[in-house]
Amino acid sequence: MNQFKIRFSLRYKLLLMLITLPLISLGLYLMMATDLFQADKVAYVYDSSATVSRGLSTQMRMETENAYAAMRTVVENFDFASNDFNAVAKDLFAKNKRMYAVLLFRRNDGGEYIRVGQLAKEESTAQNFTANVDLLTRLRDSAVKNTVFVGENIEAPGAISASFRLGNREELNHMVVMGLYQAKDLLDTFSARGMYSSFVVTRSGQIAIGAMDVVGTDLDVLRTVLKANSKEGTAETRLSDGQAYLISYSDVELGDLTVISKVDKKKALKAVEVLVIKSLLFFAALLASTLLISVFASNAMTSTLRELLDATSKIASGDFNVKIKARSKDEVGGLAENFNWMAGEVSRLMNATAEKARMESELSTVRTVQETLFPPASSQFGPIRIRGHFEPASECGGDWWNYSRSGNKIFLWIGDATGHGAPAALITSAARSAAAVIESLPDVTPGKALSILNRAIHQTSKGQIMMTFFIACIDLDANTFSYASASHDPPYLLRKNPAAEKLSKKDLVPLNEVNGPRLGDQKDFQYPETTIAFEPGDLLFLYTDGILDVEDPKGKKWGERAFLKCLIDSANNGADVEVKLEAIRAQIETYRSGSSLIDDVTMVMCEYEKRAA
User: Fold this and answer.
1) Residues near 448 by Cβ (< 8 Å), separated by ≥ 6?
2) What does the pLDDT look like over 33-43, one tens digit per residue?
3) Domain housing 225
4) Quick check: 515 pLDDT over 90?
5) Domains: count for the chain
6) If pLDDT is split at 50, 70 and 90, which confidence band does 251 have?
7) Residues 528 and 466 placed together within one structural domain of the fold
């Protein structure tokens, strides 16, 4: 066997490479990095300054719109007949902790602005605001000229003075709304001291918020910058203190308000000098470290290869607990990591298999428990025949339906929690528990039931998960049908048309006369209800939106048009509700052709038979 003679050891080759390449690379980098880094920093300062002003402009606009919406809601309930705010307005004002005062002025035929109404909290700041004639005059004139004006209220820390014009200012009887509104977060943002100093001005040069350190001559300079009439931009200018500043501005898009951010250019670019010095020191240390590390790197690499050789022998003998220390982040280190991964993967997969079996068992238990929340699929209460169907999109779902009888009144319940899976299933469980209590209450109506159920869902989910819901009550004595809805897809009432043999799309009556927010959204909402006739021969269909979202194997949704056609065809079937509902379910299964549901599917059909059972 020929003996191979090593002329130049691999260890020394690696050592030479590890030293030479960093020296060449870092040398080239240091020649280019300084200029590139400084140019990049300058661009970054310009970009970040513009981002600050744009973000503050958005925050200013949102806060102003919130104040406007709150004040407008109160003003919309002003009773011009009694020349006073009605009870609804006063209640809204009292409940809104951020509103301190709201005043309504109206321009008369003589061109004067008359205060026609006001609401003010008992705080001294609110009382001082309503009595400050000069401030109110400035707010009014600004609103008349620019539609909207917002300014910081110095006498009320954390509050802004806001004014809005209602109507065209050319109209004789237009109105102006003024108010004192709490906006501490907004004002804190403008008062925060950092690299950027931000404030709000009008394009005419009036300070609205912040800018306590801006003098009159500075305002003249800033007005010159704003004369470009663009919505946002940046500029470099020199102010009265002799320093150069980078100015960025962004239009609030309300009235003539503009957010301005200024940053001392010298201070902003000071970081460039510091970072360059630190980089030079870092590179010097890196070169010294590279020299030391290179000496040991070649030895570390060969030692890892030797350990791998020994470890493969142990693996061959069935010992999978072997571990190799990865000493580098190169291919050899990657080989060591992959070797450790392969050795531990067998054990991990065994544990994962056991854990998966445990989770599947728990989900199966959850689904079994959830199935107990639903009533029997079919039931008969006198002439009322009910048939329901529920199919979850995952192991457990977020839909729930139910029926109950109290005397000669029959209640129908259907709801859809946000999403599906275990969290939604827990909310349906809470809804079922609350419904069990509601069913035992005397003289309960759909609206009252929804209000109680809403409070229970709100306390259970803390607003994180909500439900759409629909509750109906069939009164067999009065032949009426009462219902209330919490943003649920409106069910359909199908009345038999004596003039036609079969029903058509025009015979579908969507039950959407009353509606309210989803359960859990507003804690104390009182849901309205309405009553319509419900007579023998009528058919009622309740469902959740998962039906409309059913997809075929290509991902195309079933949609409302196909759903309504299927519903009409089913209603024209002379069979009982079980056969009709089964026809709809079969049509859905045919369309799906085995594709997975993307949302839970629930539907309930209720028929008022012409002849009592």
Assistant:
1) 441
2) 767 776 677 67
3) 43-266
4) yes
5) 3
6) confident
7) yes
